[in-house]
Design a protein that fits this description.
Helices cover about 25% and strands about 40% of the residues. With about 160 residues, it is of the alpha+beta class. Strands 2-1-6-5-4-3 form a six-stranded mixed sheet. The protein is globular.
Amino acid sequence: MNFNLDFEDMRKPLPAFTRKSAIQKVRIAEDAWNNKNPEKIANAYSLDSQWRNRDQFVKGRDAIIQFLTGKWDKELEYRLIKELWAYEENRIAVRYVYEWHDKDGNWFRSHGNENWAFNEKGLMTERHASINDVAILESERKFLWPLGPRPADHPELSELGL
C-alpha cells in the first residue's frame, strides 16, 4: 500500500457493498481511527474528499491530517466503536460512540452518526458527521481496552446498550 498523500491507492473492500463487505469497511475504519495515525487515515480518503464534522468543513487529505491531529491533541485516551447502520451500492451509514477526556481530566462519551460515499477505488469521497458529547464520570466508562484497536471479543455498541 502506498502512503504517498498525492496518490490514490485502492482500498478494499470496494463498492458495491454487501452486508459483509460494509461491516468489514466499518471495522477497518474503526481500527484506523483507534490507531490515531492521521497520515495513514488520510490515505483512505480521495484526494478531494469532503467532510462535514460538527460545524467544521474539511476538504482534501492535508486538511484531514490537520483536523485529526487537532482532534487527538484535544481528545485524549480516545477509544471508538463504530457499528453499521445501513448500506447501499457505494454508500455506508454508521453510528458510533467514542470515549475520551480533556486535558483537565473530564471524561466524555461522544455519540455520532456518519454518512459515507465511496468512489470506485474504495476511497471515501464524502463524510458527513453529526456528533453529541455527553459528560460522564470516569467510573462510567465502558471502553477500557488498552489504547489502539478494539479487541475482537469486545462487545459492540448494541451489546453495550449504547
